[in-house]
Amino acid sequence: MSISIKAPRLGEGVEELTVGKWLVREGENVVLNAPLLELESDKVVTELPSPKAGVVLRLLVREGDTVRVGDVLALVGEAGETAGLVVENGLADPVEPQLTKKSVTSAGSAPPPESTSSQWSGPALPRRFLSPLAKKLAAMHEVDLSLIKGTGLGGRVMKQDILDYVAARDERKGDYTFPLLEPQPHTAARSRIARRMVESMQISAQVLTVMEADMGAIIAHRTSNKEAYARGGSRLTLTAYFVVAAARALRAHPGVNSSWTDDGMILHPTVDIGLAVSLGEDGLLVPVVHKADTLSLKEVARVVDDLAVRSRSRKLRPDEVRGGTFTLTNHGSSGSLFATPIIVQPQVAILGIGAVRKRVVVVEAPGGTASLSAIDAIAIRPMAYLSLVFDHRVMDGEGADRFLQTVKSELEGWK
Q: Is-catalytic flag, 396?
C-alpha cells in the first residue's frame, strides 16, 4: 500500500520549507530510511528519509518549490502499484490505492524534476498561495501579481516568475544595453544567502578593522597535543582555538556580544558562537557552538568537528543553527589572507580569520620598543590576519580594536 511523504516540521515556528534537491526519481526503488530529497528551512538544510522500503510512485513538487508543513511531497508504495490523488485546500492527498499497473490519469502532480514543463495538469486549485518572498519581491518591484502566470504547483507564483516579469518589463523600457541572455536559475540556498546578505548591509553600518596575530604559540600547542586529543575522540583544529579565544574576548567585552534595537542594546547572557561552514557550490551553513565560554578547548574541538561534519552531510537539527550571538568565519582554510565578512543579523560583529602564513617580521626582545633597537630582530613567524567587521551604530573603532586586541593576545599568549 502506498504512503504519502509529507513535509515535516523542522522547528518551532517553521511553517514553510523549500524543496532543495530530489535524490530519487519516479520508479526508483528505495530502502528504509534512504534519503528522498533535501528540504531547506530558513536556516538549515536536511535530508528527508523514506519511512518505508518500496518504489517511488510520484514526485509531487519541483525543486525550488515552496511548500508548507504537512504538504504531500511524494508517494512511495509497492512495485506495480499506482495511487489516485484528490486535491483539497491546495494540497494533494492520496486516496485508496488502486493496485494496477496502468497509469493514473486522474492524478494531478507536478512533472518530475527533469521535466521542462511548467504546467499543472490536475484540477484547478481553489486558492493562489503566495510565499512571503514572492509577496516581498512583488512589493519591492511594484508588480501587479494578477498579471503574472505562475509556473509553480497549481499556478503558484514563484520568485523566478516575478524576476522574469520584471526583467521583461525593464527590457521594454530600454533599461538593458546588453543582449538579454537566458538566466541560470538560482538554487534556493543561494537565493536565501543573497537575500540575507543584502538585508544585512541595509540594516547596519558595517566597518572593518584588521590586526595580525603571531600563531607560533597556537601551532606549538597543537603540535604537542593533537595526537592525544585524537585518541580521546577530538580532532584538534585551529578553528577550535579561534572559538576559545573569541569566547574569552566576548566575555571580557560584553558589548560585542549584543544586539541593537531602537529601544536600546540587548546584552546576551550566554556566548553562542556561530561557525560559517562552507558547503561548496551549495552555499554555507552557520551552526552554533552554544555557551562556548563554558567549554574547554577539548570540548570545543569535539563540538566544532561534529558540527562541521553534520553540516556537510545535512544532519543538523534546527536548534543547532539558531541563537548565535557572534559569528566566526575561518576563511583562511581556503587560502584567503583577509576578508570583509558580512554581519549575521541581529548580531553586531563577525570575526574573519585569514590563512596562517610564514612571514618575515620584526620581533622585539623583552623590554624592547617599537623604535629601532639593537635588541630587535628579524624572524620568520607564522602569522594570520584577524578581520573584524563591526556595527558602527553599536561601537566605535576604539571599542572594536580593544576587543580584537584581546583576541590577538589570547592567541599569541596561549599556554
A: yes
